[in-house]
Structure formats: C-alpha cells, structure tokens
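Lab notebook page, bench 4
Experiment: in silico fold of construct C2
Operator: M.H.
Input chain length: 541 residues
Purpose: comparison with the prior construct
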Amino acid sequence: AAPPGSGKTASGLVAFLDSAEKYDETTSFTHYLYLAFQNNEDENFRVAGSQKLSWSLVNAETQGGAFAVECLKRLLAAESGEKRTIDLDVNPPPRPETKKTLKRLLDKNFPEGARILIHVDEHRKMLPLVPGREVESAAFRRGFLETLANAERVEVFATYTELPVEIPSDASSATCRIPAPVPPLDVDQVIAEFDELQNPTAKTAATRRKPAGEQERLQATLKFRLAARLTKVGLLGVHLDKAGKLGTDLKTNDFAHFCHDFAATAAQADNFTHALQQCVAFCALPPFFPNKKVDPNAVNLLLGVPDNNKEASDDDNLVRQIGDVVVIRTADPNVNMLTSSLWRLLSINDERYRVYAGGQNLLAKKLTSTDLLSGTPLEHAYAWVLSCLSAKFGSLQFADCEDSPEFKFKCKGLEAGRLFKGNDLTQYDVEKLEPDVMYYVEEPPDHPRADIFFRTENNEVVLIDIGGSFLPGRINFKRNKLARWIEQEQPKHTNVSFHGVVLAPFVKGQSSTTDGVTLVRGEGALQLLGGLRQLARWLKN
C-alpha cells in the first residue's frame, strides 16, 4: 500500500528481478505475470454485470475465484481490449473444481519447477463499485486473491493505495513475508534531467568566491524542500513528463507547471543568495497540522525495524499493519530496515516518548517555516532520531569501534540552545545544561564546534558536529578543530569531561575514536539516521 505515483507498480517487477539475487534456486521466481485493473490502457481486466454479485459471502468468494482463473486464461492467451472484460459468472463451479482448473492451466503453460509471481495491481478496482455492496465486493476480491495465492508454485503480490480490506489484519503478516522496496526519489537525478530546476540548485562553489554558511544552509534547505515537493507530484509525473507523455499544457501538466514557476522564481532574483531565498520560499509546503494519531510503534518506525524475513516478532507484526511502509537497504544484504514514509512519520505520535513530537515539529519546520537559516535538515533529522534513540534505550554509542564510549543518557526533552556565547570558544557554562535534555543549535549566528550537544548524569558533555559534505578533507577539518578545543579546555575542568562526535554520513571509511573525538563515517553514520535514512539523498550537501 502506497500513495499514487509513488512507484508501487514498478516495485513488483523489481521484487521479481531481485528474487534471483536474494534467494536460492528453490525460492527464486522464474515467471512474472501482471494482472492490472486500472491505469493500463486497454490491457485492464474488468467485470461486466457487477449487479449479479451474490449476496452470500461464500458465493461471492466463489465468483471471485472463478473470475481469477478466467483472467489468467486470457492473460496467457494474450487477449487484450474488449476480450479482457469478463461477464460475472452467476453459477460458478465449486471452489475445489476451480482449484483443479487453475492447476491444469498452470501445468499446461509453465514447466516443472517454475515459481510464478502474479502481480495484482489496483485490485480494489476489479469490480465496479455497487452502492451498499461493499462487504460482498470485498468477499469477491478475497476469493480472487486467495484462489491464486493457494495455487502451488504461485505467490501473489497485490498493490493498491490503501491497506487491503480483503485480508484480515491478523493474517497479513503471515502472507506478506517478502518486502518489495518502492523506489525512492533521486532528487539529484531529477535536477540534472530538468533544466528549469538547475538554477540555483546546481550552482557550484565556483560561482562564488568563498563558500558561505548562509548559502550552504539555504542550499541544503532548498534541496530538502524541493525533494519533498516532488514527492507530492509523484514519481509517475516526473517520469511521464521526461518521456513527453504529459504534454506541454501547464494547465494539465502539474510537474511542468511546477518546473516553469520554479525557474521563473529564480530568474527574478537579484543575486545568487536572493535566488536561493526565493526558491526556498517557493518550495515551502503550506503549514500543516496533521491529526497526530497515537501510534505505539511510532518511535520503532522512526528508528527503523530490522527485518531478516524470519518469523515475525510482535513488533514486526505491528509494523506490517501500517500503510506506506518503506524498505531501506542496509550494508547487510540479508537484513532490510522497515520504516514508514516521511509523511506518515510526521503525522503519528508516540505518547511514551515526549521527544518524538519535539523532533517531529523540528523537521516539519524545514518544510514549512519562513525561518530559512536555523540549522539544516540533516542536523534536525539527527536531532530527532538521536533524541528518540536515547529516550528508548537510555544510552548512546555512536560507533562500534575500539575506544568508542557509551554515554548513559536518557533524553526527556529536545530544546533549542547555544553552548558558546557568540563565537568565543572560551565563554560557555556547562552547569546550565540539564542532564536529560538534548540541545540543538539554532543559527544564525554560527555556532562553532557543535550542532547538537548534551550532558550526561556522569558529567560528560558531548558535542556533536554534523558533516553533510562528501569531501573527506572538510570532515577531517571538523574533527581536528573539535579535538583541539577539547585539548585546550579539558584541563580547565576537573568535574566535567568533554567528548566530541563528528557524523559524516556521505564520506566512506571506517569509524574511529582518537583525541577524545569519535569520527563516524559512511554506513555507521547512516545507521544513526534510522528510518530517516530514506531521506539521505535529500540531505546531502
């Protein structure tokens, strides 16, 4: 279940191709069949005579099973157009007979040892809506799906915009054990493909004499907002426009209209900084006040739930009943990470952890606020995840490497704050820091050495610097500056110990701890983004 235009239809073919790589020969799919009920031009299957639907739920299921076999017959016979419209059978054969007919059909058309993935797309549309017959319609679709799914050598992959009502929620986890990743939006590729979006997003450092902190924060916010806006347009709109299938009429082509207005906004600016400001404002989403539905699994989804395709745990069962599930690939090919889309994470709440709502509001502001410079989306994403991680487990360890310390810290609040007075690195007061609060920095003015910081009950002050650059030299420069500050300031304090952390998700390499600073590179830093790792491409400077 995923929103329109999000790529769920394409994910079926991806799952088929991926099966050979992820599973052995006894479980890999050999054939892929696509049964579409909408958005497939004259290749859609349809039911004629829906008013003949039985009032008996058992009989309605039997009708649905017979319809499934007839659809498969016509698909394998390469029938199209009007021949894909099938009359509803008022007196279908009994379910056991339908099962035998399906077996004979499969044996005739597929070799021994074949494993078939049948993709049922837009299954809720297979039967025209009959007012007052929703229960019987669901029974018809259930019979359709169960008939195919119960056949030997067959797996059924059903896609729709909402969770299925045909299958009981307590049975869904048992039948859906192979997650199919929906393709994420690659905002960099979209910018590269469409000229209208390249000014000012594609401006390089060569266009200005010195990289300016204000410009860098504006660029980071613009990229994040642009990606968010494009997901609202949908991947389908982006691809169809590139293929020239949406036409040039701005009244009917939402994506072309957006690109046109984006380019016009940038062209009206007086200079590069002004262009950034105008485009950031243009890409802002309107303020939204979502219905914060209480979900006891919200923090689990934000942190990401590992899924190794073994028997589901209780938490896993709960995750699988949530729409808009996102599957994140990790460095371990045998373990995926389950989370939910950004939009769902922003619309649910977990009353057990107060910091969830605090981090949620912080990141939401990067999509809607007119305050353009108070930190970057990457910094706010880390603040949200790290605060919830410590709130749940009562500690934080940033790297799995030798000498990497574990900090006993159970976060109860996420607040804006500044450690230093201005840019003077010798003027600070650690005593004012609450031991159960994580602080994030609001800029401007610039705040040196730390974007996030906290104090533990053991009087450890941890300064976290977030590096969104992909240049190793810039990341090492951050680490060295933080190490020098700790070396200079630590001798002045006997009751407080300073520790530094640099998170560099876009620089490859091993993590390490030296001179009181833990440098977390690449995969290690991406893991600390939890479920927000899905946004990594949006957050890269």
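Observations: The longest helix spans residues 213-233. The two ends are 31 Å apart (CA to CA).
Next step: discuss at group meeting.
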